Amino acid sequence: MAKLKNRYDFVYIFDVQDGNPNGDPDAGNLPRIDAETGMGLVTDVCLKRKVRNYVQIAKNCSEGYDIFIKEKAVLNSSIDASFEEKGVKDEKDEAKKRLAARDVMCKKFYDVRTFGAVMSTGKNAGQVRGPIQMTFARSVDQITSLEHSITRIAVATEAEAKKMGGDNHTMGRKSTVPYGLYVCHGFVSANLANQSGFSEEDLSLFWDALINMFDADRSAARGLMSAQKLIVFKHESELGNAPAHKLFDLVKVERTSEGVARSFKDYSVTIDKDNLPNGVAVEELI
């Protein structure tokens, strides 16, 4: 595994058409929205979930690529099992045992060494600060949240059937965004990567996940979600050669059409490469 020697910052642009990119459970699962501006939001947790799902499918939980935070996982069982690994259970010093168990978790679980984890809910395996962090994604323009009534021609129980008088139609609701273009910013720390064991190969898999994760995780509720742009700034050094926000300012997302936006073709994405700071290279992976 090649050691990560460069800091990276990236801009990830994706869109949704006739779907709910990230429902808010505190608002009846309506699309998340900034109440003051009307801009749509997608949480970093939602995006990391999709990365985890892609890696789980792509690597089939093979050695070194298992997922710690996955459906039906019992976290304490995984933490406790790390203390039973060879070289850990025989360690007498508690501090060294905790560090050894932490290293086992990093080596076994892709998401632990990528996003970090708190592993003190069972036996204390410590905490890992993840080298990759992402912001909430925010829509470029205000979004419109629509609610649609839907029907089901079946019922769940005999009691419901009797109540319906044999009609057996039940009603429900579905929330969608007609169209929204979202921008997320992310950061990759080489320093933290070297602490967790996150490698160049792991980073390549992460880029693959951002590019392909929507195609691997389709859902009727999410409509048509697509990765449209992945712009990566690579620094020459581990600590970086320019502030991330100055690099992000070089990326401009602007409307190119009049009226209501309904596709990515209604926008343009440009990068001001003429003002790229020294020691930083930029690459468009999409």
The beta-strand count equals 14
Please state the CA-atom Rg, rounded to the nearest Å. Answer: 22 Å
Helix-strand pattern: EEEEHHHHEEEEEHEHHEHEEE
The biggest sheet, with number of strands, parallel, antiparallel or mixed sense and barrel status, is: 8 strands, antiparallel
Question: Structural class, judged by helices and strands?
Answer: alpha+beta
Number of domains: 1
Uncertain runs are none
Main attributes?
alpha+beta; 8 helices; 286 residues; two-stranded antiparallel sheet; 14 strands; 27% helix
Brief summary:
The chain is of the alpha+beta class and 286 residues long. The protein has one domain.
Overall description:
The protein has 286 residues and is of the alpha+beta class. It has one domain (8-147, 174-284). The protein contains 8 helices and 14 strands. Strands 1, 4, 7, 8, 9, 10, 11 and 14 form an 8-stranded antiparallel beta sheet that branches. Strands 2-3 form a two-stranded antiparallel sheet. 34% of the residues are buried.
